[in-house]
Amino acid sequence: VKDLHESAMHVKEDTVSRRLGATNRTCLYFIIATLVALLIFALATIMVLLVQRMAADPATEGIAKPFRTGNTSEDYLRILQNVPTKGAAAYMRVSNLVNSSKLRLVEKGICEDIQCEREELVIKKQGLYLIYCHLNFHFPSCSNSPTDVKIELLVNDQVNRQTLSTWCASETCHEKTYKTLFQLHLMPLNVKDRVSVTLNHPKFLNEISLPNENVLGVLRYSDEM
């Protein structure tokens, strides 16, 4: 009887040991599987972040490259030259006229199928045109009184678009202030339409220090009106 009792105890202990071993192995397998899943998820996350970092982002593409300083009109000219045109384009430097608010064309840059006069661009082909104007300003002695600078794009001597900007306010005033305005306008133009630009304070137009390239131009975007 004693031997039978001891044998039964050994059988129970072996059964309990086997059950405990099976439970421990199950927990171990579960922990290993969880760790492997977490490792795969972490690696996938890292790969996605690396791909996003290496992909070209148009909004931040230029951050990796140093910013250009000085005259930016060359950049505009390069962009405009790469735009497919409909056979008519002008890119002309402008300067201020004595005792006149209308700016004059002083240098021939691009003038294709456009009549470039002394103070205006005359259209030869009708179509949808992009009018652009890039002006730099210099306030040599910025006072505490605000200065309103107004740019007007004229078509046949009629104001078609205007921009008003207030500078030299007391909170933004410095001893010397440099500012730049770039204006774009898309509109239909007919044959013999005349495009020009006026400035209410031409004396502030920067023609001495960099950046000082002031431009008026048109680009025939489409032949449809």
Automatic annotation (TrEMBL):
The chain crosses the membrane at residues 27-51. GO terms for molecular function: tumor necrosis factor receptor binding. Keywords: Membrane, Transmembrane, Transmembrane helix. Residues 58-221 form the THD domain. One of its GO terms (biological process) is CD8-positive, alpha-beta T cell differentiation. GO terms for cellular component: membrane. SMART domains: TNF. The keyword Membrane applies. PROSITE patterns: THD_1 (PS00251), THD_2 (PS50049). Gene3D superfamilies: 2.60.120.40. Belongs to the tumor necrosis factor family. This is TNFL8 factor. It comes from Probosciger aterrimus.
